[in-house]
Write a structure and sequence with these properties.
With 229 residues, the protein is of the alpha/beta class. It is built from 8 helices and 12 strands. It has a 5-stranded parallel sheet, sandwiched between helices. It has a 4-stranded antiparallel sheet with strand order 6-7-8-9, covered by helices on one side. The protein has a 3-stranded antiparallel sheet with strand order 10-12-11. The radius of gyration is 19 Å and the shape is elongated.
Length: 229
């Protein structure tokens, strides 16, 4: 889904878009309300995630004007600081569908956004099929195929492989991989992640002769490369 993000803090905006892009969405960030509203006049979005406190416009006014340009079903979520009860009340009163308190947690962000999109677009949330060259990922029930043949993978291996393919060419840190795949598991030994990566590499035959290469990034994490791209 196409998600617009209004957030003046650039590192925070980049983090939000990285997390939502890894979850399979298209994300575009804006650092001012006027820039966001100007773009929405030209091209709408399926959802809006907005910081409630931007310097160039009141949060309630941003929400009101954005809703005039968004599709009627498009959900809206706003972001507030940890001690912002008045802002939460104002946002909900203004018609926002949900909110998150900063600092954001990646897993919660994805879960809340997914829940809002499922409710807003029920017909678009049947089993999703994603194609990457010869690989087909069927998100429900979590089936992986290569050239039409099923590959025997565990749920963790499926999630890990899909994370890499959704981020082809992008280095992924160990911390990011941990948060994305081992969401509720705090103490995951380093060798556990390495073992799962090795299994994904072997089971999917991610080798140069097959057009892909899954490589370690020294002192950082891993990157899936599509050769010749």
């Amino acid at each position: 889904m196409k998600i617009a993000v209004l957030e003046q803090d650039r590192p925070q905006a980049d983090l939000i878009c990285q997390v939502l892009s890894a979850a399979g969405h298209s994300c575009q960030s804006y650092d001012s309300a006027r820039e966001l509203l100007g773009q929405l006049r030209k091209d709408s979005a399926d959802m809006l995630v907005m910081d409630w406190n931007v310097p160039d416009m009141d949060g309630a006014e941003v929400l009101r004007r954005a809703k005039e340009k968004l599709a009627s079903a498009a959900p809206t979520m706003f972001l507030v600081g940890s001690n912002a009860e008045d802002d939460i009340i104002a946002g909900v009163t203004a018609g926002a569908d949900d909110y998150l308190v900063k600092p954001l947690r990646r897993g919660e962000l994805v879960a809340r956004v997914s829940a809002l999109l499922r409710r807003a677009y029920p017909s678009q949330n049947s089993a999703e099929q994603l194609q990457f060259g010869p690989y087909t990922f069927e998100t429900r029930p979590g089936r992986l195929l290569k050239d039409g043949s099923v590959i025997d993978v565990t749920q963790k291996e499926f999630s890990l492989a899909l994370l890499f393919f959704r981020n082809i060419g992008r280095p992924l840190s160990r911390a990011y991989i941990h948060e994305s795949v081992w969401v509720r598991e705090n103490d995951v030994p380093s060798r556990t992640m390495d073992t799962h990566v090795s299994r994904v590499r072997n089971k999917l035959h991610l080798r140069p002769e097959n057009g892909f290469r899954l490589v370690p990034v020294y002192s950082y994490g891993y990157r899936l490369e599509k050769l010749g791209a």
